[in-house]
Amino acid sequence: MLPPFALYRPSSLAEVADLLAAHRRDAALYAGGTELLLLLKEGLLRVQCLVDVKRVPGLAEIAAEGEVLRIGATARHRTVERSALVRARCPLVADVARHVANVRVRNVGTVGGNLAFADPHSDLATLYLTLDGMVRLWSRAGERDVALEEFLRGPYETAREEDEVLTAVRVRPWPAGTAGVYLKFGLYERPTLGVALAVSVDARGRVAAARLAVGCVGPRPRRFPAVEAEARGQTLGELAADAERLARAAAEGVDTTSDTHGSADYKRDMTRVFVRRALRIVAARAGGQEPHARYPHTIVV
Amino acid sequence: MPDTRTPSSFSITLSVNGRAVALDVPAHALLLDVLRDRLGLKGAKRSCDVQVCGACTVLVAGAPVSACTYLAVEADGLDVLTVEGLGSGERLDPLQEAFIEHGAVQCGFCTSGMLVAAKALLAEEPAPAPERVVHHLRGNLCRCTGYRKVVEAVVACGRASGERP
Amino acid sequence: MHVTREVAVAAAPPALWALLWDVPRMVECVPGCVEAREIEAHRRYVARMQQKVGPISLSAPLEVHVVEMEPERRLALEARGRDPVVGAEITLRVALGIEGRDGASLLRIDAEGRVLGKLGALGHGVIQKKAEEAVDEFGARLRRAAEA
Fold first, then answer.
1. N or C: at which end does chain C have fewer Cβ atoms within 10 angstroms?
2. Chains A, B: CB contacts under 8 A, how many?
């Protein structure tokens, strides 16, 4: 049972703003509700009303803006999974959406809700960090874009102010000649560890750029600029051979938190293992091979 | 349509297993409670209550949702399918028959969720490969069968549907 | 959760010790403490703790008992309270040790605590991190207050 609340269904952002201003901490923004309704059920959150943003036009839209892909806040994971545009521009985004949680959550949960809730165990946040993810926040005072890196402050904490609405996230697909992978590890509903890695190779067959993000193991997902810099200039063969060393460097720098998924040390060690695996898979993919990679309790995207 | 004087209460109309149903529900009513307590459809179960186990799976507009974590008002104007909507009268749905034939039911607690989820899959992919069934049913937990018979039943039902007139 | 820290304070042990019993100044030093009152000097106090984790707010009245006291050297207290809204039970044990060194002090902080209830289960990993941040902040504020 849920505690009672009123449900408002505004049809414009201006109406949303009015409702938030009128109710402030007594209101919660609501889209899919896959996180919100759980908090209400557990009694961890108490509100007088829900402000449903699903009827605001344009908020669910997925569109290309030049090179950038805009995913509307109320787009369901399932819609992203099946979007021809996403598949064409950034197939890994569609493929990772296909593995979020379970099929029921994918049908109901939204991209915006996932990012705004900032659960540390998030696939999307980890992957989007490698895609220059930018979050758009709207309020009556105006709109602002915040880099995902800055938007995610910590567990369940974002840069969104109380009067702001997350309306979209923008991602920049990787350039041609980039191979990527997302590794998702865990035995539970939420992932224990997520590694997103993309490696762009130049005409000489050397790494021009690497993008590595590790998430779910600590307060928020992070990039590894030092490890990325080490990967630059290597051939694919060198990268595969260097995978253990690079993975160890990532493990040394990762911020892990002990919780019911495992100890901080365990997660640090798993970071090493999965970054190594990711490097080898991407080196193979960049070379046109699809490695037969199967690991226990792991989804290889 | 919401009664705008009191956005805490809504009059909704949905089609449940093909039958039109009109109800007044509070905003905070969960679909699972409306189905079980107002409509007497006990097939969907409250099990984990946190949308993880799938025992409460029902279809809304053909898509599986966790009824335990889904507001009833969201189903307004849409088709809802529960396990009671499979088959008709004395005739079982081929999927239900396949479950029996393949021994995919033990205690039965997860079964209604499994059937409904599988039904949605077969509507989209009439003859899915085993990996597709495993992927789609990943969110439906079973403590008894070890899943193998469930997957076999769904795959077999899919294959057989290609042979049915 | 369990957090230990050492803080160097440029104040002699007597001054630091006196500060620990100055309730209004201590309220300012403890992150999340919004009020405190002395019930029985050097023995019992009541306080209110507030903390926010994302959308979840925690607010609990605490009963604080001094369980160990060695003037100018050691202080240990136990606190217990409950947030009825969120259903979280909080127990804390904080031990403070003061070691004098050349007119300055080394403060050792040893904080142990538990949050029981749904928040404790869900927020497990978050609570340790928050506790570490809180103890670090406490040490910094205490040092500033003692050196002022």
1. C
2. 77
Q: Does B119 lie in the same domain as B80? A: no
Model confidence at C123: pLDDT above 80: no
**Per-residue pLDDT, B165:** 53
Q: Tell me the C-alpha distance between A19 and A218, whole Å.
A: 34
- The chain-wide mean pLDDT, for chain A, equals 96
Structural domain that includes position A78: 62-171
As beta bridge partners, residue C106 has C8, C99
CB A102 within 8 A of CB A93: no
State how far residue A118 is from chain C, nearest Cα, in angstroms.
8
This prediction has a pTM of: 0.91
Question: Given CA atoms B3, B7, B9, B13 in this order, what sign does their dihedral have?
Answer: positive
Degrees (nearest 5) of the Cα angle C87, C88, C92? 155
Nearest to A258 among C54, C55, C128 (CB): C128
Beta pairing class for A6-8 and A49-52: parallel
Tokens representing C79 are: 């606190």
Provide, rounded to the nearest whole percent, the portion of chain C with pLDDT above 70: 97
Whole-number pLDDT of residue B162: 74
b/e map of A123-159 (b: 16 or more CB within 10 Å)?
A: bbbbbbbbbbbbbbbbbeeeeeebebbebbebbbbbb
- The answer to whether residue B2 sits within a structural domain is no
Q: Where are the alpha helices (DSSP H) in A118-231?
A: 123-129, 148-151, 225-231
Task: State the nearest Cα–Cα gap between C145 and chain A, in angstroms.
Answer: 29
Contact between C112 and C54 under an 8 Å Cβ cutoff? The reply is: no
Domain of B107 in residue numbering reads as 94-163
Q: B91-111: per-residue pLDDT in tens?
A: 999 999 999 999 999 999 999
| Chain A neighbours, 3+ Cβ pairs < 8 A | B, C
* Beta bridge partner(s), residue C109: C5, C96
pLDDT for C57-102, tens place per residue?
A: 889 999 999 999 999 999 999 999 999 888 889 999 999 999 998 9
In this prediction, residue B164 carries a pLDDT of 61
Interface of C with A (CB under 8 A): 53-56, 85-87, 118-119, 121-122, 124-126, 128-129
Look at the domain C2-147 and name its fold: Alpha-D-Glucose-1,6-Bisphosphate; Chain A, domain 4 (3.30.530)
Q: Is the CB of residue B120 less than 8 Å from the CB of residue B63? A: yes
pLDDT of B6: 63
